[in-house]
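Lesson 9: reading folded outputs for more than one chain in a single document. The general rule is that every protein is listed as its sequence immediately followed by its structure tokens, and records are never interleaved. Here is the first one.
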Amino acid sequence: MIIVNARFLTQRITGVQRFAIEISKILRKLNDQIIFVSPNNILDKHLANELGVIVFGINKGVIWEQVDLRCYLLLKHKPLLINFCNTGMLFYNKQVVTIHDMSYKVNPKWFSKRFYLWYNFLIPKIANCSFKILTVSNSSKNDIVKFLKIDPDKISVIYNSSYLNTNNNFEAVIEEKYLLSVSSLDSRKNLKNLIEAFKRTDIKIKLIIVGVKNVNFDFTLERNSLNNNIIVKGYVSDNELTSLMNNAEAFIYVSFYEGFGLPPIEAMSLGCPVIVSDIAAHREVCGNAALYADPYSIDDIKDKINDVLLNAKLKQELIIAGKKNVERFDWFVSAQNVLKNINEVI
């Protein structure tokens, strides 16, 4: 018996939950011995039905993960536990954990003190007691080795992929030309420098930021930093996100740090030219298919925006390279690699 910690079904979807969802849907088809267990506050009932989820326990969140899930595993005679979203069970040796990045170590100030203290306590313990660690890039693997002193042979890289529907051309939801950014509203995503760089451009265009605030992140987007050309949207549906990416003049993602950085790949899959920050994870994931900007330089970000929006030849080259680049990533292949790792420890 193999148990997947499906607490991710109770959480708003970011890149971490997207990895868990897409891998889980394929694992369900590849191995019917895998059982998904979740708290009862599931957000997507249809997806839960697709996964055949077992709802167990009375608690939610971290308490469910450490108490209720533990009770379930004990009732089932301590089977292998698979965790896809950074967390895992303390003092449970028979598990595989996924650590997406080491951002809490790279800069604790990006997070609330409570969140940092919890992760700083939890992550080293579950990493050391797990059979295997999964992560989403070689860049992230290097950071795990660096900060947690883990044997590299214990860590397997499983790439993300795009999940958006590239076969349908959704109508534009905004008629004017716009530059698009998609990220959670936290300081690691560098939205303040992006906004200031955008305000320094002379191009008549809108900036749309799609993202939601997370209580774990120590960040506030000050309203007085915005103007009429900057639109901050909250959570959007997959169809609306597809439309926004499909019709944007360019996509920009200049975060200070990433484990993988899923949105640029999604944008590339929809034929949108991409600007990203010049960091290790983006170099690994985006290759020669993106224009790179120094995330600490407002002027360089501004210049790269101008380069893409004013140079039609460069823009077309990025679109073509982006379409080619995304062929490297495939959810089915990634799920097969996850299953291979599981089978190695059963």
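And here is the second record, again sequence then tokens.
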Amino acid sequence: MANRWLALVCFTTVGSALLACNIPVFRYALERWNPDACEMILFHSGPLQTDEEIQLRKLLPSRIQGLSHSETVVASQSLGALSFVDLQTANDDQKKLWNGLSKTSSSDLPYLLVRGSVGSTNQFPLWKGPLSELEQASLFRSPARVEMSRRLLAGDAVVWLLVTGLDQEKNEAIRQRLDLELPRLAKQIQLPEGIGLPGSELFSEVPLLVQYSYLEIDRNDGKESFLIDLFSSIRPLEVSKGEPLVIPVFGRGRALEVIPGSELNPQLMTDLTLFLSGACSCQVKEQNPGFDLLIDCDWKDELFPEGDEPPPARSIGQGAGRGQSAAPQLLDIPRGR
């Protein structure tokens, strides 16, 4: 992913106010945007050993498609899909992918590659390593992700993750900024009018709150190594300087951006919060900024235990939808000062 300030993508509404979607972005994402499924590729040589198959089934959530016990997983509830590549019979593209992982020792097999996506085409690595290291990696579950999911399902509009840096004074400065700005934003932000009217219905029982919180992750916490490594790979220069990172998360665990602590300021926080709390003028998930975190949470069952879920969200292939133009307008958020 490019290390630049995100561009918020909005569609120009051309219909009446009643046709527009007045649901806040954070709530529309929570109710309608399924997390992007990851792609998992297991490289091996010859048939897997029985203990390797047992370990794979033990460590991967049951909602991974391709596992022997989860072949009937509903796509909308799937965390991802697992495929197997036997290097003894691999095709040229598979061998090229394996060679690109820079592995030279067959003792590393079986070897797992996990890839995510931004939009419909851009893939990026989430994790890679021998199967023997999978348990330590905590790909889909960690204390921070459990707590973050709990807060989002309880009504928090945005959970701001703080990954601490090396400088304790900088860490404390970011804590103070979050402590000051989040209550201010909660008082200042006004939700769109018209929520509940046709086209802007709410479907879950989650309270609609103007509520923001932050959750701190110690950069040396081994239980959070997956998140720390992921965010660090997006901001390597700032991490090498020991900076803290701040990540606003909304919806079903969608990270809006990874922000270096030195660039976090009140205006930037206001701009991002206004976007996430404003009317969802672009209902096509792939045209919105951000990327989904790997979280082992069955959002559908948590949000709609009685099955009263909203219609499927639109995708790029389905067009912009009624009352919206087909061409997006890019609105750049100013770089932090």
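What the second record shows: Confidence is low (pLDDT under 50) at residues 1-19, 318-337.
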